[in-house]
Request: fold
Amino acid sequence: MMRHGIDHPVVNDADFQIWQQYAIRAWPTLVLIDPRGKVVDTQSGEILAEEYAAKIETLIADFEAKELLDRTPLELRPERAAEPGRPLHYPSKLLLAQPEGGSARYLFIADTGHHRLLKVELAADDRSGEIVQVFGTGQPGLRDGPAGEAQFHDPHGMTLSGPNLYVADTENHAIRAIDLATNEVRTVAGTGHKAHGRLGSGGPTDISLRSPWALWSEEAVLLIAMAGSHQIWALVDDTRLGIFAGTGAEALVDGPVAEAAFNQPSDLSVGFGHMFVADAEASAIRAISLGEDPQVMTLVGQGLFEFGDVDGTGGHVRLQHPTGLTFYDGLVYIADSYNHKIKTLDPTTGEVKTLIGTGQPGDMDGAFFEAELYEPEGVVASEGRLYIADTNNHLIRVADLAAGTLQTLMLHGLEQLVGRSAPQDLAEVHRLAPVEVAPGEVEVTLTISLSEGYKLNPDAPQMIQWGETMLTFGPAEPPHFNVTVEQETEIDVMVTLYYCQTNDQRLCLIHTRRLRLPLTVAADGQEQVDIRYEVD
Reply:
């Protein structure tokens, strides 16, 4: 629920009690209940919300006329309201890049829950990386322009083509392009609205898309895993957009690309003359031959209702909602998301093996057989290492294939994530107790205490900002500043802290609050004020 920004109540009907009471026969099923508790309508399968809205509007008008509609808002406190800030929030997809002729290696991260993309320069030992560029404001939206002003909404897959980083901007139902020479963002396909019905006409930006999830490119051709329409689309020269594979039906059907069907394709990778597809809802791995007469075939998986965690070969092999894959050194590495594992598939033999993970969610580093993941979604490979978007752990993990060990990538340069341009009006306000001060200049000291087991990150600058003034400080000395007070007033101090677990530097958090300090003036008031603020 936190991952998808869902704030309404959700019931885990583990024992099918609600299912049976409402005589549900398929999923999804929508049951419309009126204010008296009576079932008004039941619809199975995917529906168009716009068409269904008329029924709801009629009910609202009817019950308002009868004065039987209670519009008192429900007081809900979503779990995400208590979540600490993190450098990453449900990272989904990754991309490795090494500019031609350069020694630097970069990892692009789709920081999906923060609606932005990060460019990270990897250290030589792959134990850490420096954030060197952020694309997106961190607020969901569809806005082109410079990196610091552009907006995305749940971005996922990426690919490089020439000077451009192409991005599957999933919830904007758009394809974006970032010119890495200028850091300018532009929209190359999609209208920003989810597609309904048949393929539209016109140029790529006149055609609505449906949840693009992953990308792959070669020269002027960009292939798009269109998860929402269960198809693979193609964008050529940024000017022509059309369907490459899939009828649009949600099914597991092999054969010619025009007759085949997919179930939420979620990642793409190429090897051995084939495009491998993570067909997530079918818990399947598909392959498309890339010859003159492209054909779709199923390598692993049996369909929507056949899932599990079974290695081996043949029809009994089971995955559970694989959302990521990459072809590397003769093998397909699979992010078997709901099994919390990385698996390998040998395309020549069909054998599937567990490589990393115990099958239980967790964040333990170490040997592959004991290391833990939590719904990994993205995986890329280079130079004997796998880089894994460990989505529900909000981490990037690095697997050394020769050593058989997994470690967590340490991110530096966290100040890039919250800087001067951080929107103060969006930060949660913490109101402090009023203080009586003497008129004139007053020295304010901020003393910060963290919960037991945490410490300020010594490698990141802590920041406070009041008005147009910003001050950075370290863990050793509390920050202090002067303000001039002549009459009763309130001062707002924006606090940005980077802190980590004392015994585990892998888990570092970001805390942003706006402290509001009311000040009254009296001749015998204090000339020095100590603000004590506890981070819970």
